[in-house]
Amino acid sequence: MTQQTLSRLADHLREAHHVAxxxxxxxxxxxxxxxxxxxxxGLWARYRPEDLATPEAFAxxxxxxxxxxxxxxxxxxxxxxxxxxxxxxxxxxxxxxxTLITQNVDGLHRRAGSRQLLELHGDITRxxxxxxxxxxxxxxxxxxxxxxxxxxGLLRPDVVWFGEALPGAELEHAAEAAAECxxxxxxxxxxxxxxxxxxxxxxxxxxxxxxxINPDASAAxxxxxxxxxxxxxxxxxxxxxxxxx
Length: 245
Ligand code: OAD
What we know:
CATH architecture of the largest domain: 3-Layer(aba) Sandwich
Structural class: alpha/beta
Mean pLDDT: 94
Number of strands: 9
CATH class of the largest domain: Alpha Beta
Helix content: 25-40%
Largest sheet: 6 strands, parallel
Strand content: 15-25%
CATH topology of the largest domain: Rossmann fold
Low-confidence stretches: none
Number of domains: 2
Bound molecules: 2'-O-acetyl adenosine-5-diphosphoribose
Order of helices and strands: HEHHHHEHEEEEHEHEEH
């Protein structure tokens, strides 16, 4: 893509009253975290995330699912936010109105300073009881298997698993932002998991300019302007061009 395209998109960004962004696993790729559909490594290579991130998998083998999340948490705690996360934190300060919607559970947006954040799929570093729903402290949790809550239920990560409902208030707020924004950025997501993927359609139908940032051009939603490349490279350039003048 040319500098001219970036400058034109930066103009749209600067002129927008409300900017919304939807992020997926790709934005954390440059922080060293594997994306959801990439092969897992090491011991976990033979499992598909789709077979572990389900209530059925947890009911069948709670220790296996718990250990997989412990491994993913260790990757997250070793990772740092990258330039793309920081660019979105800056965008929140610069745009008159900004909403950040993420499918990620890694907490890197918050660690980069984003505050107007809707975490649609939860947070891998929080825990709640699978039976009574009570939140649990996060210190001293074992890696081998889930501890029990006072009610006798097992603790689980506070994430949304396949087949589970998304948090209603967050999803509603995200849909409102998609409907009201002037520019909708879709960053590092394959756009295949609903209802999050449906937000792009809502934005488009309501007249937002949709900009997709992804190294895989085929992941861009139809009708979006494509910036083909890494988010950690392109997003800081776009935000800098928009607000440095
Ligand atoms: P995916 O793993 O499906 O897609 C990651 C996307 O990031 C792909 O389109 C890649 O091309 C793109 N990508 C890779 N490197 C990138 C980079 N450096 N910069 C920008 N983009 C890059 O992850 P998600 O779309 O986030 O849900 O997956 C959505 C949901 O599917 C997850 O939240 C999870 C899973 O089911 C639940 O667990 C409920």
